[in-house]
Design goal:
By secondary structure, this protein is α+β, with helices and mostly antiparallel strands. It has a single domain, classed as Aminopeptidase, CATH 3.40.630. Strands 3-4-5-6-7-8-10-9 form an 8-stranded mixed sheet, covered by helices on one side. The chain is globular, with a radius of gyration of 16 Å.
Amino acid sequence: MALSENKIINNLFIQKISGLKINLRTLEEKDLQKSLIWLKDPSVNMYLSHNFRDYTEEQELKWFNFIQTSNNDIVFAIEDKTTNQYIGNCALHKIDWDEKSCELGIFIGENDFWNRGYGSEAVRCTIKFAFQKLSLKSIRLDVYKYNRRAIKVYKKCGFRLVKIERKNHFYNGKYWDTLIMEIQRRTI
């Protein structure tokens, strides 16, 4: 992992992370227009925790400004390392510094980069960062049962199923289960 300074959270510089195929850098205001397009894209939105179909530029900017000042959230832009193309976001949310835990969120917005290992690498790099640089002990995530591709990635990265919330997510005329998954520092 190569690093370069970008943001400060909890007295720690949040730095650019370089993997084999991707770079993770803190999200910048210039990314918001592209991010908003992805959030509204039904093929991306169906996997997200909220429906962003009616989300506005003003709401996105307000969220971005909150994230920039938050001591409990880090949002990375995912870039293709070869082209520096911005392809998605990966984030640590609700960081609890006392419990040393957080929640993970990710999406690859550019569908040309789906099923090519970019999401897996972004998750692995983010886990490594959370455990080694932030000294967190556990990371949780929610994923809908129909998101088989993400479930496969999370399992491959070391996440384990801890709970199933039955039929609590309505999508495409049907109620779906939400899987709660977790990875703990000792399991990697």
